[in-house]
Amino acid sequence: MSWITVIWSMVASACLTLAVIYCLVWFRDRRAWANLFFALTAASTTALAFSELWMMRAETPVELFGAVTVGRVALFVWLVSITWFVRFHLGAGRLWLAWTIAGLRAFALLGLVLMWQDVSGRALTSLPHVQFLGESVTVLGSVPNPLAPVAQFSTFLILLFVTDASVTAWRRGDRRRALMIEGSVAFFLVAGLGLAMATRWAGIQLPGTFSLFALGLVAVIGYELSRDVLRASTLVHELQVSEAGLRETEARMSLAVDAADFGISIWDLKRNEIWASEKWRELFAFAPSERLEFSAILQRLHPEDREGLLQAHAMAIAGSNGGRYQTEHRLLLPGGAIRWISCVGRIEVDATGEPVLMRDASREITALKQAEQEAQVLQREIAHAWRVSMMGQLASGLVHEINQPLAAILRNAEAAEMYLQHPSPDLDEIRAILADIRSDDERAGQVIDRMRGLLKRRALDTRRLDVGSLVGDVAALVRVDAAARQVKLNVDVPDDLPHVRGDRVHIQQVLLNLVLNGMDALNGARLEDRGVNVTARIDVASGAPIVEIGVDDAGPGIPGGTLVQIFDPFFTTKPNGMGMGLAISRTIVESHGGRLWAENKVGGGAVFRFTLPIAEDAASV
Ligand code: ADP
């Protein structure tokens, strides 16, 4: 049995197997260029082994030359493919250097022509033979090749290229790979080609053995690539696990979205395409397969709410509030029905900060809105009932206010009758009496009007209000009551105070409640202390200017610890109190965008203050 045949055949078949495997790998994934070049390296090693075996068995110069030609071409492919393998595997290395190496190696192939001239001239007998592994084998002998320095220089460039690529990979943090490739290429290349050159220089005749070293490198790289395959399979497993996790999260999310009754929509702003979940389409009354256009969605909105949604979108796109928005809007459904929608949305931007996606989650809140409206109606009714009860407190004073002009009217009517019984009645006197009757009637009418206004049940009607006339009306209503209780009502409202925005009747109700509470607090106070003061001023300290109205008294003040509690419904310290006045007053003030609070004065007594927004437009009342 020939050892040479066994060893070289084994090298050739092992490399061929690897070449086929990695060629198939590349075929499955065309982007895996490193695999293709490795397959070429392995295939060219097979060719090298074959050429070396053929060379050792060559019996004619032509046969020898054929083997050398196959060997040189295989070496060319081997060196070029190893260069490009390193380039793709490490993702580093200078391209111009790789092309230079390929060019130089191709040029060095021209040496074959010279060799042919030399070999073809030899006689059959001149083929040198040496003893190798117990057999006599043919060797090439010394062949002049002026292109040998080019080939050697290109080998040096390969080492340079691989070192440079390894340094880049090392710096990038890919240290293990860098070391492995640099170490193995340097070792096998230097050892394989070095041995060939050294024996030639030393005049030792040896057959070609480079394929054995090439096999060493192929084995190391094969091992390295198999690690990658192993890593890829681990990654696939991890991916499967994380995919399963993702599916689970998705399932949970969709469960949560379903449970919360949310409809989801995603608007690709770049492509202007809108995707929406089934629930969203149901909410906005779009058919499942209907193409969604933003203009059509906007048409679904109640005309009064369209501008609001557009503004919210514009602000989110401009980046305010972190690209998030929240709106409540009405939908005008095809049948004419109204559906309230609450929507939260978010803008997503790309790497350059440009908005690319708009996601929104919408939910129906019609029932909630109805309940809110019902609560508002209920609140108004409670406030009305309270007003009526307050008017009850003032009733005796108001009856007196009306009685006075009525009695005057009666007296004047009687006087006029008497004048008319005279044969030549004094018409001027009668005219004066009639004028008095008219003015008394108007006085009574005004009192009735004020009462009627407060007793009417009506919806909130905010307008531009003059604080002076508002306070004046309240003062007129409580005048008689105050006089009966010996309480002096002092009003101090500057003439130039800006108008406020509010509902006249409701604000009067608040003032009336505070003034009556102030008068209650003075029960038992000394005569000189019996005064309730109503003041008003403009407050510019807290941002946007507002009007602050204060009602204070010189009573005992509010017991310590109850400054907050007194605003709770049903909190009262009065034997016949209901404890609803302050709670209702606070609701009214807050529904106007203001604030109501209480303080104790330094010298004794309590002060209640409330704020109202300054009016910008609307007709004066
Ligand atoms: P009511 O007048 O029916 O008690 P309110 O809600 O108007 O209901 O007032 C709640 C409580 O706040 C009063 O019972 C009283 O204890 C306290 N309070 C209100 N105004 C004053 C005030 N000017 N001075 C002292 N305590 C006051």
How does this model look, in words?
This protein is of the alpha+beta class. The chain folds into 4 domains: 3-234, Rhopdopsin 7-helix transmembrane proteins (Up-down Bundle), CATH 1.20.1070; 261-364, 2-Layer Sandwich (Beta-Lactamase), CATH 3.30.450; 367-459, no CATH class; 462-621, 2-Layer Sandwich (Heat Shock Protein 90), CATH 3.30.565.10. Helices cover 59% and strands 14% of the residues. It has 16 helices and 14 strands. It has helices spanning 3-28, 33-57, 61-90, 95-108, 111-120, 148-172, 175-201, 210-259, 278-283, 294-300, 303-317, 366-421, 427-455, 467-484, 504-521, 581-591, and strands at 129-132, 135-138, 263-268, 273-276, 324-332, 338-349, 355-364, 463-465, 488-492, 500-502, 531-539, 546-553, 596-600, 606-613. It has a 5-stranded antiparallel β-sheet with strand order 4-3-7-6-5, sandwiched between helices. The chain has a 5-stranded mixed β-sheet with strand order 9-11-12-14-13. Helix 2 runs antiparallel to helix 3 (61-90) and helix 3 runs parallel beside helix 6 (148-172). It starts with a helix and ends in an 8-residue tail after the last strand. The structure holds adenosine-5'-diphosphate. The site of adenosine-5'-diphosphate has 21 residues, from helix 15 and helix 16. Adenosine-5'-diphosphate binds next to helix 15 and helix 16.
Topology at a glance:
Layout: H1 3-28, H2 33-57, H3 61-90, H4 95-108, H5 111-120, E1 129-132, E2 135-138, H6 148-172, H7 175-201, H8 210-259, E3 263-268, E4 273-276, H9 278-283, H10 294-300, H11 303-317, E5 324-332, E6 338-349, E7 355-364, H12 366-421, H13 427-455, E8 463-465, H14 467-484, E9 488-492, E10 500-502, H15 504-521, E11 531-539, E12 546-553, H16 581-591, E13 596-600, E14 606-613
Parallel strand pairs: 9-11
Antiparallel strand pairs: 1-2, 3-4, 3-7, 5-6, 6-7, 8-10, 11-12, 12-14, 13-14
The structure holds adenosine-5'-diphosphate.
